[in-house]
Amino acid sequence: MSQAKGLLSQLFDDAYRRRVRLALLTASGNTPHWQHQGLKASAALQPWLNALGAGGGTPLLDALEQAAHWLTLRQKQHPTEQQRLLLLTDGRIKALPVVPELSCPSLLIDIEQGPIRLGRAVQLASALGAEYCHIESLTRVR
């Protein structure tokens, strides 16, 4: 989880410097929750990031459906805006869901760690038509 937090912190810092807008949707517990929606990146994200934990159920399909819907609406409201979806997940889902079509380039970063890896994030990336990357390959580059 510390690698994922470090990656998100860097992403927030880069977004702040470039003055880009972010939408941040978390999928933990029973329902997805919007943390930040189409606003410029700011220091206000840091307390959320510091409190971020792991574990429990993941309403991943609901989150993907909400994200797809939000991206479609956002594209209609801001047709010249470039959109990208970044999905951080350990892929620990019971079964691969039928996923919604995403209207923008997407990258799935697999944060699954440990000696036994299920590898479902690769399958999820394929189903989403997203580029796949394991977080360890990002940390090796630095």
Topology:
Layout: H1 2-18, E1 21-28, E2 31-40, H2 45-51, H3 60-77, E3 85-89, E4 106-110, H4 120-128, E5 131-134, H5 135-141
Structural write-up:
The protein has 142 residues and is an alpha/beta fold. It has a single domain (2-141), classed as von Willebrand factor, type A domain (Rossmann fold). The chain is built from 5 helices and 5 strands; from the N terminus they run αββααββαβα. The strands form 2 sheets. A 3-stranded parallel beta sheet has the order 3-4-5. A two-stranded antiparallel sheet has the order 1-2. Helix 1 runs antiparallel to helix 2. It starts with a helix and ends with a helix. The mean pLDDT is 83.
If you consult CATH, what is the topology? Rossmann fold
Mean pLDDT equals 83
Quick one: CATH superfamily?
Answer: von Willebrand factor, type A domain
Poorly predicted regions are: none
Name the helix and strand elements from N-terminus to C-terminus, one letter apiece: HEEHHEEHEH
Give a count of the beta strands, DSSP E runs of length 2 or more.
Answer: 5
Rounded to an integer, what's the Rg over CA atoms?
15 Å
- Approximately how much beta-strand content do the residues carry? 15-25%
What is the overall number of helices?
Answer: 5
Short description:
The chain has 142 residues and is of the alpha/beta class.
Keyword list:
single chain; Rossmann fold; 142 residues; alpha/beta; 23% strand; three-stranded parallel beta sheet; 5 strands; two-stranded antiparallel sheet
